Model the fold of this input.
Amino acid sequence: MVSAINCGPDGAPNSFTNFKKAALAIGEKLKADAQQPPSSTWTADYGSTTIPPPPSPSLVTDTITLGSDVWTTVYSSYPNSPAPTPVSPSGNTIEVIVGGPNGNLTFTPNRVSAAPRDTIKFTFHVKNHTVTQSSFSAPCLPLTDKANGTRIGFDSGYFPVTADATTFPTWSLTINDTAPIWAYCAQNNHCGAGMVFAINSDETSGRNFAAFQSLAKTLNGTTSSNSTSPNNGTTGGNTGTDNGAMSNSVGGGLVVALVAALVGSLL
Done:
């Protein structure tokens, strides 16, 4: 539906007939473009590596019954995510070792399934590690709000541990929902060596833990923008929504200061 004022006569380049044909051609192109299927691949946030598209969550309203407690919750349900019902009022505690007695650059286990109210207790071993939230598309960079660049993910901060340590610091994370959560160690080169971690990853999809770890190695680790510091409060998600977890507590042998030579030996 178009109209014209003072257009040229039929046969002229600026005639109404030519104007209408051009409008119809544009309409047909827009219609054809709209019918094209969406791309099945995305590109990582840095570099040129292609990655699978993100999962499409469904908004669900559910009534949760836990003993004598009943409440209604609204949440984004992801494919193959755990049920939203906590296992108990206080949840389970899931133990994860960060590093290892031989200086391993690993999380053990490297992925877990966790329900709301579960607590993941990270115990830090030899070297100087962190647990820092990232995203699948940028495995070795802190999770940020893409609109303004503000860091919004959880971050344990560094926990240096010497080879002769007999006590080991811990840091705990409480899970709020069942969305996939991705994390890494922000120490130089550790993420690029595959030191990454996942919570509630969909192992049947292209965005599984092995793919996340492979992407971290392909993109080759951290950059100078990856400095990390403790974050002990509730944090928000990538678009201002809940990121699925909140830092909870620190305990057991936290080292607050080391001389530079000692820190260097722990990298």
Q: What stands out?
A: Helices lie at 16-34, 209-219, 260-265. DSSP finds three helices and 16 strands in the chain.
